[in-house]
Write a structure and sequence with these properties.
Layout: E1 18-22, H1 25-29, H2 41-46, H3 64-78, E2 82-86, H4 89-92, H5 102-117, E3 121-127, H6 133-137, H7 145-161, E4 167-171, H8 174-183, H9 198-217, E5 227-228, E6 232-234, H10 239-262, H11 270-273, H12 281-285, E7 292-295, E8 300-304, E9 313-316, H13 332-346, E10 353-357, H14 375-393, E11 398-404, E12 423-426, E13 431-434, H15 436-446
């Protein structure tokens, strides 16, 4: 006799699991100087020739600033119950200091209210890399004073939105902000300092802690992080490659995580950070976290670099996996690997996890019937959700998945050359066209047990 319960064709996640989408202010909002917004480091960076692959900028992007009701309606149709957005600091404080720009706060209040009316809980990131340019002119994240400015900004946003925001994240992927922006110069502000960028890492962590204190004082009840993590695979069994992999694992996976959860830096890195540390800093950084956010895209294969280069690391190609159009390997089990690794390393010190960002670039456009058949993205979503289910079965307390991203957008240094959205955007007309992956994700959400 056949079972009355037919197996679901969709991944089934634990009861109460949150399905969401995530986005960042600069890549989607546009309205670069509307309603009193000041310039950010990305406005400056994109204006410099050669910085962005296609020479574009986020000056218009998806025009989300004006079209947010349409985008929230798409989220409602999708069936997500969570949206991770970021607030643009220069919309709130055009120079990174002084009184709040009320028109900037008004925009985020309208957006949050629209989300809540649609049954979508906001997860608000305060910093997704768009530092006010005036602060960068004073040293940016290399300047300790920026941490106090950030705490003041956090308090302003929380005062206006704190009664309606479910989850707060002070800073998105600080390791990318440091390495990309100050280490190798691929992101704004475009500085190439290699290990001399480490004071910026300490200051971003200190800003995280000070902002968490300010948020808590304003009544926030759920504060977490969104740290980018990658499994680190040595390029060979050679001792030099293994050693380089362990060191880069400390830089990428350990530095920010250990500081937040344990109040210390990895032993191999601590001497490099000591000059930036003042008494009490590590206590400030180690604020209680209500959740731990993991941003995941792919593993990294690490080799020892030749002695005559600035960095001790080289990164080798990962073979044997399908590739996204951006050239990143698709390794769904790497997500399960990093979730289980975090639990093994930090045990009781690790709060519940949300996958706060994960997605893939496939540049499929509309066919002659207007259909966007992005089967590769469907396969990606299916496999990564199954990987999370596997981690949950292994005992990891993982409570949600926010995919990057709802709409195609400005993809940082890649400009508009890479499309990560569930919704296709014609950047000439701003028309939104849901892809097949949009329908699949909606069906997967609807298939969950209630």
């Amino acid at each position: 006799m056949p079972s009355p319960h037919r197996a679901s064709p969709y991944p089934i996640l634990p009861a109460g699991f949150r399905f969401g989408v995530t986005a960042a202010s600069y890549p989607i909002e546009g309205a670069a100087d509307a309603d009193g917004k000041g310039p950010s480091i990305w406005d400056t960076f994109t204006a410099e020739p050669g910085r962005v692959l296609d020479g574009s900028s986020g000056a218009v992007a998806c025009d989300h600033y004006h079209r947010y009701p349409e985008d929230v309606a798409l989220m409602r149709r999708l069936g997500v119950t969570g949206y991770r957005l970021s607030v643009s600091w220069p919309r709130i404080q055009p120079t990174g200091a002084g009184p709040a720009n009320q028109r900037g706060l008004d925009f985020y209040e309208r957006l949050v209210d629209e989300l809540l009316e649609s049954g979508i809980a906001p997860m608000v990131t305060l910093y997704h890399w768009d530092l006010p340019q005036a602060l960068e002119d004073d040293g940016g994240w290399l300047n300790r004073a920026t941490t106090d400015r950030f705490a003041e900004y956090a308090a302003m946003v929380a005062e206006r939105l704190g009664d309606r925001v479910e989850h707060w994240i002070p800073i998105n992927s600080p390791n990318i902000a440091v390495l990309g922006g100050y280490g190798v110069g691929e992101h704004a502000p475009g500085r190439r300092l290699v290990f001399d960028s480490l004071p910026a890492a300490h200051h971003l962590l200190l800003a995280h802690g000070k902002a968490a204190i300010a948020l808590r004082a304003a009544g926030a009840t759920s504060i977490g992080c969104a740290n980018n993590h990658q499994p680190m695979w040595p390029a060979s069994d050679d001792d030099a490659d293994v050693g380089a992999t362990k060191l880069f694992d400390a830089v990428w996976n350990g530095l920010f995580c250990e500081a937040m959860l344990l109040g210390r830096y990895p032993a191999d890195l601590a001497p490099l950070l000591e000059p930036a540390i003042a008494p009490g800093d590590m206590t400030t950084i180690r604020q209680p976290l209500d959740f731990y956010g993991v941003n995941y895209y792919s593993p990294r294969r690490v080799a020892a670099a030749p002695e005559d280069v600035d960095s001790p690391f080289e990164f080798a190609e990962i073979l044997g996996y399908p590739m996204t159009d951006y050239g990143w390997p698709v390794v769904p089990d790497g997500l399960r690997e990093i979730l289980i690794l975090l639990r093994a390393r930090y045990r009781a010190g690790l709060p519940p996890i949300y996958v706060t960002e994960s997605g893939c670039a496939y540049n499929t456009g509309p066919d002659e019937h207007g259909v966007i058949d992005d089967q590769a993205r469907i396969d990606y979503l299916d496999a990564h959700l199954r990987s999370i289910a596997g981690a949950a079965e292994a005992g990891v307390d993982v409570r949600g998945y926010y995919t990057w991203t709802l709409t195609d957008n400005f993809e940082w240094a890649e400009g508009y050359t890479q499309r990560y959205g569930l919704v296709y955007v014609d950047f000439e007309t701003q028309q939104r066209i849901p892809k097949r992956s949009f329908d699949w994700y909606a069906a997967a959400i609807a298939a969950q047990p209630h």
